[in-house]
């Protein structure tokens, strides 16, 4: 169906447009679209308008700014001339983390500079750079095919509140589900293993979190007069935490692991072949030992295994010195990372039952769950994933390996609401400094991102005929 | 050696002097000697001066104000004419808890009023009333014996910082140990079981407390990226707390119970014969269940058994909502109530060893102990205790039973430094509202306190010849 796309045409096109492309990105990076800071609300709107205009200039026949109760998202659409082509929805975000020179930046965070083959500036990698490679990518794709429209129905949804926890994102997706309908979602807001090891991320963990309050005496009471003869809510909280895991580091809550497929030998082999250096990983984790579920490597633990983690615990007197009380209350914040096969609401029910059964007489408790995020996992044999791997392999001239992410993201909302598989296509590397001072993007990798998408749309259209098409 | 003291003489003397005695007490209660509030420092000094003057007027040939780096103590001494008589040191305090009408007092806390046979006012029971009964008591004793000096060498030490944790008390006692030397210490800063059940307290628990800090990652790290693969210091803290007790509620720290004599059948019988109502006790404890070491009653647990209690726990995020982190650190405040036979510094060493052995790899910890307070226990067969019981029995016309206190107090410093047994003589009842609004003292019981001491000195001199005398 699609034309062949000789790699040399793509590369020449990218080389020719490289300077203008980087100048445009720098212009976008100058807009401090910090969604978490109300004084930048106008900048976030300006960023959306800038992007919509740039996408129109790129050739997208439909570009819209979608308001939300918070910051606006940008939607763009460029239908293929082939009605039976797959529909692809690209996800990214145009808002950025806060940044100030005083935080340790060597140059102004919103005055991008190119130095040593890198562009420094807030948002260079997370996520403006990775959104922006799609603009030159689709033009290079058209240059190679000679067609007037991409080989796939291309949609972009670039939200404006990701760095603020995407508070309005799911509602937006639900409200606009028909416009967003797609056969596959491609998330460009992740990274690769390293500069020299191109990888594609195949999954993110989900997360369910809860707060548990424990109430013992009606007020703090004297531990001399009453200690040793009444139940202590801080002890109850601590015992619950201690009981979360067995000696092998496995979560003890009945049913917690239900539905999870064990890692296959093939999956474990793919993880094991990555050049992992545990000492270096521990430095990144600012931690002093690796520890976790027995029988799994560190990467397996963070990418492919669910967890129960204490994010916060408090109860009784925490000021200077001592205070001899039995505290009136204690509080826990727990979060559970979830992997494919786990149903968040079933995990929630299991946790509630398990907690209720373990709180001792004389202690009342309450437990409140936040909205969960489902895990995403791209099947390794999914044809769209194969296209991404081939396109990336062509761009990088290297074998592409597989990673996952331990974290959780709004991609899961797209997967849920649109009922479409989620793929990840990111070219950022760990040294890019997301959320840190001196964030940068490697220009070579950025242009590899352009090149990957230039190959991707044709490959997808050629190799995949989704059932719905 | 001593004269007989016909009870009728004592009672007549008390009746005759009752009004002046109560007027004097009311005058003292008008001085707001709140040691915890710097703006009342002058009042605490005034209270000491008032008491010293009153003791001089009572007849004590020696009255001194002993300065400390904080609030002053009052010392008074009245030697017996018999050089071989026992030396008794009475302990109490002249400072009071803070109080304000707005806290729920029906009348001004420092404007004492007599109503329904009670005197209301801050310090009425804790501890001015109980210090003050010793003044009329010794006069009534002299009235009955016709002697010019008490039958025992009588010393009083009335400190001014008890409600602020007695920060300078031990140093004062060490510095003045020769002046304070005594065969027995009588602490008048406790209470009785109830209005209708006169009791004498025979012991207080000691206490050792510590803070433990746990350090994991060098900063809070993302629980998505790293959770499940590094040790969590909040989990380490919780596991330590959970491991403190076994399923029978016994403390698991090796050596913790070393040196403790089991409660004898006689001691258990004395506790069991008290009219204990667990439901009412739970209301006082503002708690919703009794729980503790298996094999012991509630009273045995709080009076006669050591404990390990969590006074505070903290770590990670404790604000509103959730935060998906592995926290950098966690903190515990533990206290251990100690009973006779336990050596605080041995308990401290046992706790240190036990904690160090349980902190997992990758978590650093530090542990700091405060200055411990030793337990006090009066042997039931001590002749001075027998005198107190007889004197109280004569005053109350009832059998006197035995209690203990679960708390810990500066009495232990007197026991330690002066190497003298500590007895407790208090007439306050639980409804007196120590540290609460509308503190009061029952006038009938207050005068029974006067009467008890009127009998006590003669009984002591008659029945006890300490080895040192
Ligand atoms: Zn991002
Ligand atoms: Zn007191």
TrEMBL record, chains A, B:
Gene Ontology molecular-function annotations: metal ion binding; peptidase activity; succinyl-diaminopimelate desuccinylase activity
InterPro entries for this protein: Cyt/Met_Dipeptidase, Peptidase_M20, Peptidase_M20_dimer
EC number assigned by the record: 3.5.1.18
A Gene Ontology biological process term: proteolysis
Pfam families registered for this protein in UniProt: M20_dimer (PF07687), Peptidase_M20 (PF01546)
Signal sequence, start to end: none
Gene3D superfamilies the UniProt entry points to: 3.30.70.360, Zn peptidases
Keyword Protease: yes
Keyword tags: Hydrolase, Metal-binding, Protease
SUPFAM superfamilies linked to this entry: Zn-dependent exopeptidases
PANTHER family in UniProt: BETA-ALA-HIS DIPEPTIDASE (PTHR43270), SUCCINYL-DIAMINOPIMELATE DESUCCINYLASE (PTHR43270:SF12)
Protein name: Succinyl-diaminopimelate desuccinylase
